[in-house]
Amino acid sequence: MDALIDQFINYLRLERGLADNTIQAYSRDLSSFARFLEEQDLSPLTVSRDQIIEYLSSLKRSLSARSIARSISATRMFFRFVTSEGHIRENPARLLETPRLSRKLPDVLSTDEVERLLARPDPSTPRGIRDRAMLELLYATGLRVSELISLTVLNVNLESGYIRTLGKGAKERLVPMGEKAIEAVRDYLLEGRSQMVRGANLPTLFLNSRGRPLTRQGFWKIIKRYGRTAGIKKEITPHTIRHSFASHLLEGGADLRAVQVMLGHEDISTTQIYTHVTRDKLREIHERYHPRP
Questions:
Q1: CB < 8 Å & 24+ apart, contacts of 13-21
Q2: 111-289: which CATH topology?
Q3: What is the pLDDT of residues 13-28, one digit of tens each?
Q4: DSSP per position, 105-129
Q5: Which residues are marked as active site?
Q6: How far apart are CA 188 and CA 216, in angstroms?
Q7: How far apart are CA 32 and CA 40, in angstroms?
Q8: How far is CA 10 from the centre of its chain?
Q9: How many other C-beta atoms are found inside a 10 Å radius of the C-beta of residue 142?
């Protein structure tokens, strides 16, 4: 089983190009499945559909519905791979159904809250200049936090006003920046980053105070601190800014397909969740201002 899992993980990484987080989650799911097979003295080459269902049913005692759905997805993909490689003739997981999950509407900030957040960094310090550039760029482009901290200096073209980023599945996309973000990033490159480099010649755009690449956790702490000082009561994460970017564009009349491309969503149904946010906003406006709500 371990050898088959290793082959499958290499397939996901090299041929499917899945994101590291997804690969790690699938690896954990399959390791759990392998332990079940070992405890039951079963082989992945002879396990039946009913035995797989027995395992998945046992997960209900400890996992959420979303985690179970991911485990089902991992199991289906694993056995599809094992079958395609000729290790087994019949795929026992072929008819497994993934449960439909209700999608939680994402939290978004109002435009006023965004303005308050973006105004918090102190532009008189290198760290404040960096933080302003990161926040402006995040709101201007809707990048994932992993994409933001992975940017290099060469990924940013201030003349054309675009950034180049690698999203999920190592898929490249170009996203426009906007004048405010261009100005903030230009200030950071001229005044902030030069004081953070510490002699190292790193290509990474955003550095910490020691001259090393800023981490995902480091930026989470930064954005939460600014959210508190801005007096915003909502839970703020980098993804909150991404959600706000998408919903504000759609509220302003942007085309759904264009927003999908900027967000790097493979399936437009993923982007459509933001139309629900927009409809909720319209309902709120209607109830507030219509004479007979």
A1: 16/169, 17/169, 17/170, 17/171, 18/168, 18/169, 19/168, 19/169
A2: hpI Integrase; Chain A (1.10.443)
A3: 877 777 778 889 999 9
A4: PPP---HHHHHHHHT-S-TTSHHHH
A5: 144, 168, 239, 242, 265, 274
A6: 19
A7: 13
A8: 22
A9: 21
- 99 Cβ partners below 8 Å, 6+ apart? 65, 68, 69, 72
User: Would you list the domain boundaries of the chain?
Assistant: 2-84, 111-289
Which fold does the domain 2-84 belong to in CATH?
A: DNA polymerase; domain 1 (1.10.150)
Are 108 and 243 in contact, with CB atoms under 8 Å apart?
yes
pLDDT digits (tens, 9 = 90+) for 224-279: 999 999 999 888 889 899 999 998 988 888 888 888 888 888 777 777 777 776 66
Identify each DSSP E strand in 91-216 by its residue range: 156-157, 162-166, 172-176
Instruction: Assess contact for 251 and 146: CB atoms under 8 A.
Output: no
Tokens 């035995």 sit on residue: 51
Question: What tokens does 102 get?
Answer: 């209700």
Type of residue numbered 4: L
**Looking at residue 112, what is its pLDDT?**
94
Percentage of the chain modeled with pLDDT above 90: 43
Tokens for 291, please give them: 């004479």
